Amino acid sequence: MTFVGWFTIAAFAVVLTLFALPLGSYMAKVYTGQRVIFTPIFAGAERFLYRLLRVDRDGGPPAQDWKQYAKSLIVFSLAGWLVLYFILRTQDAPWVPHALNPLGYHSAPWNVTFNVASSFMTNTNWQFYSGETTMSYLSQMVGLTVQNWLSAGVGIVVAVALVRGIIGRSGNSIGNFWQDLVRTVLYVLTPLSVLVALVLASQGVIANLSNYLVVHTITGLQQTIAMGPVASQHSIMLLGTNGGGFFNTNAAHPFENPSQFTNFLEMLSVLIIPAALIFMYGRMTGNRRQGYAIYGVVIFMFLGAASVAYIAEAHGSPAQHAAGLNTHVISGSAGGNMEGKDQRFGIAGSALFDTVTTVTSCGAVNSAIESFTGIGGAVPMANLSASEVIFGGVGTGLYSILLYVLLAVFIGGLMVGRTPEWLGKKLEAREIKLAGLGILITPLAALFCTALATASSAGRKSIAEVALSKAGGNTPQGFSETFYAYLSQANNNGSAFAGYTGFIQPNAGSLGSHGITFADILGGFDMMFARYAPILFALAVAGALAGKRVTPAGLGTMRTDNPTFAVLLIGVIVLVGALTFFPALLLGPIVQGLTGHLY
Amino acid sequence: MKRDVVTSIIGIIVFTVLLGLVYPLAITGISQVAFPGDANGQQIKVGGKLVGSKLIGQNFGTPVLEKNGKVKEVKGVVVTEPDPRYFQTRPSATEGGADNAAASTFSNHGPNSVRTKEADEENIKSYLELNMGPNKQPYDPGLTVAKIPVDAVNTSASGLDPEISKANAWIQAYRVAAVRHLSLATVNGLISKYTSGRGLGFSGEPGVNVLELNLALDRLTGGNG
């Protein structure tokens, strides 16, 4: 460990907070229809889009109750899935211009495409394919980039709708899905994404439609270098916490993350919207301290996770020590576990990046999580086990933690023996049941799929360790690969213990390639179920709260904007996560972390 | 319901055109005009010939020849051995030879895996051999297993890491200086010149760009030491 490593982690938290505060105020204005700096630029486009979408009425798109809102969201997502599936399956169709498929790549098989379409629609970006050897430029742009935007938009609007339900003063309306989506795309995502894409492109993230370069090296070898329109897709995949890399090694690839500076910028891009949404929540409730309390909880848990990962990775791995390597800091090298890490990011920049992307639902990686030490690898898993509440994905993070807040208020109310109240609204059986289901459904999907995949021979075909290790995959590593796969997909994260595969590709371009149907289909359903079930529960909670009358806070009302409540909230999150996932975490990474034994 | 279906279909078409065509083509177009060097991968040319990208690591090895003078191949992949005149990049797990920039990949070696230990041991052996002088003494007199920096032995994430640690470069500098008949100070001066700094003064680790360093050496000694 080095001083500068710790400084990076601390500086990151400070810079993030400083940027997220104003963005939170800005977003609160956007979603309450106030004038913002971009209004003169986008107001015309906004009205035009409403007309195109046929939702323009006098005074804007009509108010929807939660069921109408949910219906629009589901139908729109389904349409997106079908279009994406079609684009990916017709990648080599005769009407595709050669310039947008310069290498003439064939489409991936149906089962892999099922998984990919489900993955990008649900903001997961789990990748059973390798970008530069499978996808045409057309598929990357018109297919995958579009869903990077839209799945992010869908996540954000659910959070906004839930906040509206919580603070609602009149009737059953929680807003209009189309209006929220259009505003998210125009006012929030467009300015940020264009800005980040251009800054990245100026630093070496490539942006072209060229053929792959062929280089004759100075030692007489030949090297082929993959190209592509990377900057545009990379910026939205970070900002929308999508995480699907243009290239196979994602943000570790020098063309996606070329320097020490871009690494910092990219981490900031991932967390900026989830962090801003929390401040937006405080603004919209009319009491900023509501947001500060939640922000305190998540930044505390985030820093804890990043610190553990940094300490573990700086220590080095049992395999390194068995080989006789010195993993201490020496002059000119920061030491540590550099297996699966690039030099420019170092240990701190890698541990922090992968913490940033696993607390959110981003899942981009700049280092190989499978090669992290036992405890270092347990950190991403624990982050996922907390079900996207430590910042979480764009939108998903806020609505998930608000469900936890509801649960914490309820438990707090039980402890003091009063009817629980939250921001002046009485919480009753219906909301608690819905919130409870919303919280538990994701872990349920993750554990069910893991059990199914571990127990069946079809599931074990995907484990790299089965083919490679002497123990035939009966190792903690083999279990970790499987557990991580379904946990990551259920949480719509998309990072991986990348040895786990659902796609066999003997040649670039999908010639002769095939999918592993079991893993592809199970994963696809895992992602969709664990995405839309919690969304429906969150919207139902919004609907249930929207119509409730507000009573003024009394002496006995439990406050939800002070440190006491923050501690209670941390307790509830840790308790639920630990009770659900501790046995599984023990079997995989913790066993590896506690032993120097090699398998 | 019908209204939602109609709006969804229109919505997907409109957004696909805006976000899937207009947006990426605009970003790509602006970048091509404003930052052509960066947008096209920071290509490096020598005498008009493309020799690589500054950002993409390369295999500075030469093909191994069989007894009959043919280039040795295993499963269609050319077998190479590191060229001692050049600084060597980090181990790479890409298929089709090291530093295959058409198919980046992780090694996915686990922390408690026997395979990881074996790979590390193999890489330690090669590193020591490479830096061993003709009189069975290492070029760097202090070089032992415990002195080898981890980045010289552990596989990089991208498989295309363009940089090595300063410690790794300083060890290799002894070899390169001896083979090329340069003073150690000259080589170490070049290392400093091609070392990237931390972002914003604190983010990440400094790294030595191997391709730039090797090209600078060739300019100095005309390509053959």
Question: Can you put this structure into words, describing what you see?
Answer:
The complex is a heterodimer of chains A (599) and B (225). In chain A, the strands form three sheets. Chain A has a two-stranded antiparallel ribbon. Chain A has helices at residues 3-31, 39-52, 66-89, 110-121, 131-134, 137-167, 177-202, 230-239, 260-285, 288-315, 318-322, 346-359, 374-385, 396-416, 429-455, 457-460, 464-468, 476-490, 517-546, 563-594; strands at 213-216, 222-225, 421-422, 425-426, 503-504, 514-515. Chain A has one domain (3-594). With 599 residues, chain A is mainly α. Chain A starts with a helix and ends in a 5-residue tail after the last helix. Helices cover 40% and strands 12% of the residues of chain B. In chain B, strand 4 and strand 5 (77-78) form a beta hairpin. Chain B is elongated, with a radius of gyration of 23 Å. Chain B starts with a helix and ends with a helix. The interface between A and B is large, with 138 and 115 residues.
Major beta-sheet overview of chain A? 2 strands, antiparallel
Distance between the termini of chain A: 27 Å
User: Globular, elongated, flat, extended or rod-shaped: what is the shape of chain A?
Assistant: globular
Strand content of chain B: 5-15%
Report the order of strands and helices of chain A. Answer: HHHHHHHEEHHHHHHHEEHHHHEEHH
Q: What is the total number of structural domains of chain A?
A: 1
Strand content of chain A: under 5%
Oligomeric form of this entry? heterodimer
- Regions with little confidence, pLDDT below 50 for 5+ residues of chain B: none
Structural class by sheet pairing and helices of chain B: alpha+beta
Shape of chain B: elongated
Class inferred from helices and paired strands of chain A:
mainly alpha
Main sheet makeup of chain B = 3 strands, antiparallel
Work out the number of β strands of chain A.
Answer: 6
Q: Compute the CA-based radius of gyration of chain B.
A: 23 Å
Distance between the termini of chain B: 76 Å
Strand order across the largest sheet of chain A: 1-2
| Fraction of residues in H or I helices of chain B | 40-55%
Mean pLDDT of chain B comes to: 95
Number of helical segments with 4 or more residues of chain B: 6
Average pLDDT for all residues of chain A: 94
